[in-house]
Amino acid sequence: MAAPLLQAEIEIAAPVSKVWELVSDLNRMPQWSPQCRKMKPLGGPVRAGTKTINLNRRKFLFWPTTSLITEFIPEKKLAFRVNENGTVWSFELEPTETGTRLIESRHAENGVKPISNTIVNTLFGGVPSFEQELVDGMNQTLQRIKAAAESGA
């Protein structure tokens, strides 16, 4: 059984508006995430209900996914559900005295679809190590967003 919640957070010395600009540009997701190679929104401006086509990579393995933007609240929250495994990924932004707190989460309150767990157990070395890899990836993602926001990139 997969953990219901995986999460990482970071403090960024940049205004919420700047961090949101980076996080909400889904075409830039491969710059941030070590696993995402492509995230392409379909059908105009990104909003709740927008569908995406994604390509992920782990070492020599590549796999496509699709997702649906479930929440798009400017300068507050972006969330999307991955159709293949039922997990919901989100970025939440909170203003702080020195800038922005950015929290990345993977929610699996209803568990992860059994086929996904089978694939992870077969190809990715098991759910616990894969989930630790996901948390490590979240921390890398947040560090990359922080570096871009603080440098003005």
TrEMBL record:
It holds the Pfam family Polyketide_cyc2. Transmembrane segments: none annotated. This is Polyketide cyclase / dehydrase and lipid transport family protein. The lineage of its organism: Bacteria, Bacillati, Actinomycetota, Actinomycetes, Mycobacteriales.
